[in-house]
Automatic annotation (TrEMBL):
Organism: Nonomuraea soli
Domain DUF2470 positions: 12-81
Highest taxon listed in the record's lineage: Bacteria
SUPFAM superfamilies referenced in this protein's UniProt entry, alphabetically: FMN-binding split barrel
InterPro entries in alphabetical order: DUF2470 (IPR019595), Haem_oxidase_HugZ-like_sf (IPR037119)
Sequence intervals crossing the membrane: none
Name by which UniProt lists this protein: DUF2470 domain-containing protein
Pfam families: DUF2470
Amino acid sequence: MSTLFTPAVVDQIKRHMNDDHTDDSRIIVRGLGGRPEAAEVVMSDADAEAIYFVADGEQVRVPWGETITERPQVRVAVVRLYQEACDKLGVAARGEGEH
């Protein structure tokens, strides 16, 4: 794992994802993380190459699809992963303004 962010930054990202976007995390894991039946999903880590989740007790790595070099890229990358996962699962994505 390549570390780009300090532990404090990763904690902020985790808190936001786990407090405000649990359904989005579940969709990402189900659609892109190879766990289509995942029920309990929490974000556990992030680095320059991927976002990590624990899904039903198992570690799941979902690559960003690009190397993240700046913190603002995380939001853009998460929204992209969410939209890709929705497309793959055949579910409607929430509107852009809702993220």
